[in-house]
Amino acid sequence: MPQTIEAIDHAREAGVPIMVAINKIDKPEADVEKVKKQLSEYGLVPEDWQGKTVMVAVSAKTGQGIDELLELIILQAEMMDLKADYQRQAKGVVIESQLSSDKGVVATLLVQNGVLKINDNLVVGLHFGKIKAMFDEYGRRLSEAYPSTPVKILGLSGLPQAGDEFFVVKEERLAKQISLLRQEKRKESTKTIQKITLETISDQLKEGKIKELKIILKADTSGSLEAIKDILEKIKTEKVSINIIHEGIGDINTSDVVLASASKALILGFNVSYEAKAKEIASEEGLEAKLYNVIYELSNDIKLALQGMLQPKIKKIFLGKAEVRKIFKLSKVGVVAGCYVSKGKILRNSEVILKRNDQVVFEGKISSLKRFKDDVREVVEGMECGISLGDFQDIQEEDVIEAYEIQKITPQI
C-alpha cells in the first residue's frame, strides 16, 4: 500500500533499522510469501531469504505471532543497546494531536525516557502546558506513564505537530518562558528562511554544497510515475546524482512535505496538487513543489538545474589574422600597431594572441581598434587598421596577431 512504501522511504532516509510485522494472517486469503516478495522489491529482503530484514507474520485479532514479534523487538533493542532512564524528567515525542470540541487540545505522546506524571509541566514543540488528565490506548485514566508507553494528554496551550519533542520542567512559569522564546525564534527564522526550490538546490549543487539531488515524486497514475522515473534515471552527470527518496500516487500530503523538509529534497508533482494542510506546512517551511502537466517540461527543468552546476567548456573560435606592418608610438595611447588583415576579420575587444617567429609572446584582449582616426567595431580581410593591446608595448614589425572569440558551452545531459 502507498502508506507502507511511504513508511519505508521515511525510515530509510532517517537511517533507522526496519522491522516488519505482516498482519492479518488469520484471514484465509492471507499470502505471507507474496507480501515478502513485494517488500523485497523495495529492498527489504527477509532473513529467511538470506536477507537482513526481520519479518514476523502476526494476527492482531488472534494474537498469533505477537510474542515472537515482541521477543525480536527486545533482541533488536539489546543489540542496539537501547536503554531508558527511569530516574530523569520525562521526555519523548508527539505522535499526533487534535482539537476536541469538549476536551480542547488532545495530544498523543510517546514517552521515551523518564516517567510522565499527572500535573507535570511540559514544553511541547512551540507550546506548553500542565497535564490535567492522561489516558492509555483504551481510554483508561493513568497517573503515570513509563518509557515506550503511548498516552493521550489534556492541558496543552496549542496544537503541537507530529514529530515535535516534549520534555518536563519543574515550573509552569519556566515552561511558558521556553515556549514564548521558541515562538519568537520561529518568527525570526521564517523571515530569513532558506527556501527549498529548484533554483536554490541548483545553486547549492553549483557551489558543491550537495552532491545529489533528492526528489520526492508524486503523480496522478502509476503509468505517469514510471514514465517520469525512467526519464529521471537517464539524466546523469559525473558530479551529481539523482536520488528519488519517495514516490507515490495522489496529491502532495503533509508526510511528503515533512520528508522533503527533513531531507532537503525537491518535491515534483505531475497532474497533482497540494492538500490544504500540506500547503500550509510547506509555506511555513519554505518549501515549494514544482507542479507540471507536461513530462517534457519536468525533465527539461531538472536537466537545466543540473547543467547549471557543470563547468562550461571553453571553446576558441578563430576570427581572423592581422600582420603588423608598422609601429606607431603615441604619447597618450602608447604603442599602436599598423596592421593588414590578411584573413577573416578582427573585432574590437577580441581575445588575441600575438606571435613572433611562431612563438606566442602575448595573450589577452584588444584595447582599441581603429580605421585611420576612427574607432571601429570590426575590420575585415584586405583592409588596414590600427591595433592597441593595452599595457603590452612590446609589439614589433612582422609580428602576427590572431583574433579569437571565446564561447562557453554548457555540457548537455
If you had to describe this structure to a student in words, what would you say it looks like?
- With 413 residues, the chain is α+β, with helices and mostly antiparallel strands.
- Helices cover 27% and strands 37% of the residues.
- It has nine helices and 23 strands.
- The chain has helices at residues 2-14, 32-40, 66-79, 172-191, 198-206, 222-234, 254-263, 276-285, 295-307; strands spanning 19-22, 54-57, 91-100, 104-113, 116-117, 121-124, 127-135, 144-145, 150-156, 165-169, 212-219, 241-249, 266-270, 290-292, 313-330, 334-347, 351-356, 359-365, 368-371, 374-375, 378-380, 384-388, 400-409.
- Strands 15, 16, 17, 18, 19, 20, 21, 22 and 23 form a nine-stranded antiparallel beta sheet that branches.
- Helix 2 links the parallel strand 1 (19-22) and strand 2 (54-57).
- Helix 5 runs parallel beside helix 9 and helix 6 packs parallel to helix 9 (295-307).
- The two termini are 35 Å apart.
- The model has no long low-confidence stretch (mean pLDDT 87).
